[in-house]
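sry for the spam today, last one i promise. struct tokens for design, 201 residues
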């Protein structure tokens, strides 16, 4: 019997939230902090391990994840940019599970992520014919992204602000796509206020 598909996940939560003016990872969202809300969403998918990369305000963010089956990994060089945190997360995931066949990269500021979206990414990848599967909103390829193992070496040498988006700009024919109807991300106070209005009961 063939081994089941092994897919891990890296959740990036290391940024300083400069545009928000306060740690957006800790914003109240549906009765939880934003980072815990998104972490609980991704944990519904068949992914293991789940690595959460923290950096700025790590001492405040780590307690918000207490009790969840995630590996919290500190990026001491988070200020270097997104690529630095992604590299740290990929390294941590592969240290925990060296035989991973795929790795999803997700962002901690996407509260509207549908619970079954990650399963759709995995399903599309397993159909074959693609080296990665990106979420698609309109004409844009966006996170979360499932990278096949062939991408791991490249992800492990990322530097500065280069990250998954730089790879997605290549838009190669072997990139699979899954529609993401809600690509809300919370970068500014206005984004947050708009999200609260749209999701108020």
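last one done:
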């Amino acid at each position: 019997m063939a081994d089941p598909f092994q897919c891990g996940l890296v959740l990036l939560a290391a940024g300083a939230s400069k545009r928000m003016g306060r740690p957006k990872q800790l914003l109240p969202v549906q009765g939880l902090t934003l980072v815990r809300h998104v972490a609980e969403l991704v944990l519904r998918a068949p992914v293991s391990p789940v690595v959460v990369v923290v950096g700025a305000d790590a001492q405040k963010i780590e307690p918000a994840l207490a009790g969840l089956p995630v590996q919290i990994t500190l990026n001491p060089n988070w200020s270097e940019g997104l690529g630095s945190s992604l590299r740290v997360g990929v390294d941590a995931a592969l240290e925990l599970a060296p035989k991973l066949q795929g790795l999803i990269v997700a962002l901690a500021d996407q509260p509207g992520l549908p619970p079954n979206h990650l399963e759709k990414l995995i399903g599309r990848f397993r159909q074959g014919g693609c080296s990665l599967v990106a979420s698609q909103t309109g004409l844009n390829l966006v996170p979360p992204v499932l990278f096949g193992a062939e991408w791991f070496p490249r992800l492990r040498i990322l530097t500065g602000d280069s990250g998954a988006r730089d790879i997605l700009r290549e838009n190669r024919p072997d990139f699979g796509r899954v529609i993401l109807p809600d690509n809300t991300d919370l970068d500014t106070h206005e984004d947050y206020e708009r999200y609260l209005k749209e999701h108020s009961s």
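The mean pLDDT is 91. ok im logging off now
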